[in-house]
Amino acid sequence: MMNQLDDLYQEVIFDHNKSPRNFGPLENADHEAKGFNPLCGDKINVYIEMDGEIIKDIHFDGSGCAISKASASIMTTLLLGKNKTEARELFEKFRTLITVEHDYDEATLGKLVVFAGVREFPTRVKCATLAWHTMQSAINNDGETVTTEKNE
Ligand code: ZN
User: Fold this and answer.
1) How far is the CA of 88 from the centre of ligand 1 (A)?
2) Which of 13, 65, 130, 136 has the fewest beta carbons closer than 10 A?
3) Looking at the domain assignment, is residue 148 inside a domain?
């Protein structure tokens, strides 16, 4: 059973890595940020079009390992139409899932549960969270390159 679950999870990550959703620049982006994970070499750029507090559209591009790209891809599908607070809350839940928690709320996390196994590989946590830190920076418009050296 556990192995089948792992296979399913790997399939989702493989799929989003091979065919990333919302990939490429966003013409009407009014918020953007660059993220860099020096441990793995992942580079993720996030582009957001905000409508007040709402994420009206969100894209990403860049290059990186399968985990960083799949996480970014799934993130864009989940954050579309969410407001800033919901985006931050989902990030916190995701971070908890992949760092500490064994009992998680699948209804809230959706496809993000495929990253639960990342918990066993602490260096990969930074791959999985890179896009999320970058998204947060884009929303805040703080204009700095996000590096995982400062974040977890
Ligand atoms: Zn990586």
Assistant:
1) 22
2) 65
3) no
How far away, in angstroms, is 49 Cα from ligand 1 center?
26
Domain count of the fold of the chain: 1
Give 141 Cα–ligand 1 centroid separation in angstroms: 24
Which residue carries 């969410």 as its tokens? 82
What CATH number does residue 122 fall under?
3.90.1010.10
The pLDDT tens digits along the chain (152 residues) read 445 667 778 899 999 999 999 999 999 999 999 999 999 999 999 999 999 999 999 999 999 999 999 999 999 999 999 999 999 999 999 999 999 877 777 888 988 988 988 888 888 999 999 999 999 999 997 667 788 776 65
Dihedral in degrees, nearest 10, Cα atoms 118, 121, 122, 128:
-30
> What distance in Å separates the CA atoms of residue 32 and residue 51, rounded to the nearest whole number?
14
